[in-house]
């Protein structure tokens, strides 16, 4: 393995700003920002969406099977699919 060609891998603090949640994950992402968490300084990256705020993971996604065109299709042709 060649020396000095791999990016530096370290623990990074990712901050989901929409849910105000922090995730400490190993990463090679480059950033100049830092944050202190639990007495330790970590590189800091803000993100807009994570598992704490995404509708799929929070259970707040829209269910298309109960409304709209998919429900109309299933009502008309669902008996053929069984």
Automatic annotation (TrEMBL):
Q: Which domain of life is it from?
A: Bacteria
Q: Which controlled-vocabulary keywords does the entry list? A: Ribonucleoprotein, Ribosomal protein
Note the coiled coil stretches, chain numbering: none
Keyword DNA-binding in annotation: no
Alphabetical list of SUPFAM superfamilies matching this protein:
L28p-like
Q: Would the keyword Ribonucleoprotein be found if you checked this record's keyword annotation?
A: yes
Gene Ontology cellular-component annotations:
ribosome
Protein family membership: Belongs to the bacterial ribosomal protein bL31 family. Type B subfamily.
Q: Which HAMAP family match?
A: Ribosomal_bL31_2 (MF_00502)
Q: Subunit structure, per the record? A: Part of the 50S ribosomal subunit.
NCBIfam families listed in its UniProt record: L31, PRK01678.1
Write down what this protein is called: Large ribosomal subunit protein bL31B
Q: What is the lineage of its organism?
A: Bacteria, Pseudomonadati, Pseudomonadota, Gammaproteobacteria, Enterobacterales
């Amino acid at each position: 393995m060649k020396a000095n060609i791999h990016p530096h891998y370290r623990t990074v603090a990712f901050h989901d700003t929409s849910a105000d949640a922090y995730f400490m994950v190993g990463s090679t992402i480059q950033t100049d920002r830092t944050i202190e968490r639990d007495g330790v300084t970590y590189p800091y990256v803000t993100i807009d969406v994570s598992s704490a705020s995404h509708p799929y993971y929070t259970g707040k996604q829209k269910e298309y099977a109960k409304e709209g065109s998919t429900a109309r299709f299933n009502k008309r042709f669902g008996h053929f699919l069984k």
